[in-house]
Amino acid sequence: MSIRIGERIADGTLYEYYDQPTDTCAVGPNAFRVSEMAKGKTIALFAVPGAFTPTCSEKHLPGYLEAYDDLRAKGVDEIWCVAVNDAFVMGAWGRAQGVDGRVRMLGDGSGEWARRLGLELDLSARGMGVRCQRFSALIRDGVVEQLNIEAPGKFEVSDAATLLSQL
């Protein structure tokens, strides 16, 4: 059973790659607890089956980059992109897409968080292993307020415009 509106988002660890050190983060992959990252924030979260895949690279991530200012104006503190890829891949994808800090590119390398959400997707028959279903969610202080889960192979309800209209 998957996560539902009104529930607290599943806790777990996601990884983010940093090209430059900060006061609190070293260069390379850094581990973050979902519960701590979401505390006191409004998050526009979207998850994709994989970095560098066609729909994800051509439509999903670019849509959130285009809507960045509008989402922020509606009270979104952070935008998260999550995929069952490691932090190195997510960092490289973010650089290739020109994310420039507008979206946190978070890796769920083993798919553990996707399983905790009940949103894992087995693409083993296509050579991709177990991934995450495509979805978007609005998270306020750790609680799911909106949830848009795509049907397999679709990209109709998890786009930035839909989530923006739900704010």
UniProtKB/TrEMBL annotation:
The keyword Oxidoreductase applies. This is Glutathione-dependent peroxiredoxin. Thiol-specific peroxidase that catalyzes the reduction of hydrogen peroxide and organic hydroperoxides to water and alcohols, respectively. Plays a role in cell protection against oxidative stress by detoxifying peroxides. It is an enzyme of class 1 (oxidoreductase). It catalyses: a hydroperoxide + 2 glutathione = an alcohol + glutathione disulfide + H2O. Keywords: Antioxidant, Oxidoreductase, Peroxidase, Redox-active center. Its EC number is 1.11.1.27. The keyword Oxidoreductase applies. PANTHER family: PEROXIREDOXIN, PEROXIREDOXIN-5, MITOCHONDRIAL. Residues 3-167 form the Thioredoxin domain. InterPro entries: PRX5-like, Redoxin, Thioredoxin-like_sf, Thioredoxin_domain. CDD domains: PRX5_like. It comes from the Bacteria. It comes from Yanghanlia caeni. Belongs to the peroxiredoxin family. Prx5 subfamily. It holds the Pfam family Redoxin. PROSITE patterns: THIOREDOXIN_2 (PS51352).
